Amino acid sequence: MHALLITCDDRVISEFKTIAAVTQTHLVIASKPTKSEIDLAYRVFVSQELAEIEITHSDIVLVVVGASNTETWSSALRLSANYVATIPESRDWLIENLVQPIRSKGLSVGLVPASGGAGASLISCGLAFHARQIFHDVALVDLDENSASLDITFGLENQPGMRWQDFSNLSGSINGNDILRSLPNRDNVGLLTHGKLTALTKTPKILVLEKLNESCDLVVIDFPRLSDKHFSIDALTNCDLVLVVTTATVRGCASAKRSIAGLAGYTKNIELVVRNVPGSNLDPMQIAELLNTPLAAIVNTDVRIAEQIEQGFGVSGINLGGFTRNLNSLAQRISFLKELKSVA
User: Parallel, antiparallel, or unpaired: how do β-strands 185-186 and 189-192 relate?
Assistant: First the structure.
C-alpha cells in the first residue's frame, strides 16, 4: 500500500517528497497513474492542475498551491474529494495524513436502551468490567448527556482524570493511548464520562471514539435512547455491534420494536439484551423471536446490585452469581465477534 500523488507541479512534488521523507511514507508520484497504482493507494492526492482527471477512489484529497478559490471547490466537488489541502498552510495536516491510516484493531459495541429504566447503563458497566478478562484494553464511553454519570455506577466519581469537557480543544495529533491513559481507571477499564454536571461543551466525540478504537481491544459505548436529541448517529454507524436493551415487559417489547426499526437504517448488526424483571411472565426467547432480532443475553434483576452501588462499591463490587454469569457470557459472545472480524 502507498500514498499516491497525481501531479506535474514541481512545487507540489518537492513539498510531498520532503514530508514523505520525514514521515517515512511510501509515496508514488505520477501524472498518469496506472489502475494498479490507484488500486493500491490508501489515499490519493490530486494536484489542482490535474483536477480534470477521471478517477474513482474512496479517499481523495485535492491539493492546491496558494489560496483556494471557486475553481478549487468546483474541482473538489467533481472529484468527490474528502479534503482540500493548501500548500504550505496545510503542511501539519499533510504530515499527519500522508501516512497510512491506522486500521482499527478493536471492537466498538454500543448499548441503546429501548426505554427509560431498561438498565442499559448498568449493563454497559457490567459488560466493560467483565470483558476486561478477555480483552487487553477496554474503554467505557458515556454518550448519554442527560443521565446520571456512569462514574457513580463504576465507583470512580472521586477519581481524577479526563472527562468529556476536558477534550473540547482536542486535535487530531493526540493518539488513543494518550486518551486512554488520561481517563479515570478501575480494574483496567478506562472510563470516559461527563463527570459533574456542567454546561455542555462542544467536544470532538467522533474523533475521540476513533482514537480509542485504534488503541483498545474493546470500546463499550453507553448511548441515550434513540429519541434523545443528543443521540449520535455517526457514533452508532461506527459500531461493530449494537445491543438494544429492554425489559421483559409488554411496554419494553413495544419500545424495543420501535428502537430496532429506527436503528436498522444505520447499522446492520443489531442484537437484543433482555432484562428479566420480577412479576413478568414473558420469555426472553419469545421476545427475540417476536422482534426478529438475535438474543445476545438475558440479564437477571437483583436488588442487591443497587444496594452495592449505593454503598460505593461500584460495579466491580458486584459478584452475584446470576448477574456475573450473564455478563461473562455476553463478553464471551462479543469476543467471538472479534475473532470473526479478524478472520474477515
Answer: antiparallel
Q: Cα 319–146–139 angle (5° rounding)?
A: 45
Cβ neighbours of 344 (radius 10 Å): 5
Residue 132 CB coordination number (10 Å):
20
For residue 248 the three cell numbers come to 421483559
Dist. CA 218–CA 334, nearest whole Å? 9
Q: Which three cell numbers stand for residue 277?
A: 424483571
Nearest by Cα to 192 from 57, 52, 204, 326: 204
Backbone angles phi, psi at 82, to 5 degrees: -85, -20
- What does the pLDDT look like over 2-56, one tens digit per residue? 999 999 999 999 999 999 998 889 999 999 999 889 988 999 999 999 999 999 8
The Cα–Cα gap between 1 and 102 comes to 12
Nearest in space to 163 (alpha carbons), one of 205, 122, 108 = 205
Burial of residue 170 (number of CB atoms within 10 Å: 0-12, 13-18, 19+): middle
- Taken in order of first residue, the domains within the chain and their CATH numbers are 2-97 (3.40.50.2300), 107-343 (3.40.50.300)
120: cell is 442499559
Claim: this prediction has a pTM higher than 0.85: no
pLDDT tens for each residue of 132-161: 889 989 999 999 877 766 887 777 777 889
Neighbours of 143 (CB within 10 A): 24
Q: Regarding beta strands 270-276 and 27-30, do their DSSP bridges make them parallel or antiparallel, or are they unpaired? A: unpaired
Sorted by sequence, the CB contacts under 8 Å of residue 122 that are 6+ apart come out as 153, 305, 315
